[in-house]
Amino acid sequence: xxxxxxxxxxxxxxxxxxxxxxxxxxxxxxxxxxxxxxxxxxxxxxxxxxxxxxxxxxxxxxxxxxxxxxxxxxxxxxxxxxxxxxxxxxxxxxxxxxxxxxxxxxxxxxxxxxxxxxxxxxxxxxxxxxxxxxxxxxxxxxxxxxxxxxxxxxxxxxxxxxxxxxxxxxxxxxxxxxxxxxxxxxxxxxxxxxxxxxxxxxxxxxxxxxxxxxxxxx
Length: 218
Description:
The protein has helices at 21-24, 92-106, 142-154, 169-178, 196-204; strands at residues 48-51, 56-59, 112-113, 122-126, 129-134, 158-163, 182-185, 191-193. The protein is α/β, with parallel strands linked by helices. The strands form two sheets. It has a six-stranded mixed β-sheet with strand order 3-4-5-6-7-8, with helices on both faces. A two-stranded antiparallel sheet has the order 1-2. A hairpin with an 8-residue loop joins strand 3 (112-113) and strand 4 (122-126). Helix 3 (142-154) runs parallel beside helix 4.
């Protein structure tokens, strides 16, 4: 009788070989066995999109972009929009993402990286709008507001400024004269309107295409 193990008993199949642990490991992009998919967690698959040209992910592309009903958000004053879904800000990237989400919530589309880089911060562009996001710890100065406004004028667009550190008193006065909406991004990810122009934008949302904004630009 040959050595190396007993022959299978007649009528009984040979014992199955145990699969090596490495053979059971999930392939790249495949969820491990027993894990829950994004949909099972309540998040639609592919729920993150990216601001074109910036590499900044923007969540909430499914359904109404960047919005989420429920407590803890910021809704339109007239209740016509669902609540805005904040995103906790820990990095400059988070600040840009929050600003992009908020602009989408207001109704702006085609949000992308601005062609012209602002003197400070990061520029975003949408149809009919330029936005500047300043994630530094320095309050924005009048020159920052003026540069954004002048750039928007050359492109026949409106403008909006987002800052983490707020604005100097002179910057607020200059923004009021130029009707530039100013927002402060708190660390919870909620944009806070800082002047009348920002409050009006928050309440009314993006102007419809073909209509004119308060300052006469489309």
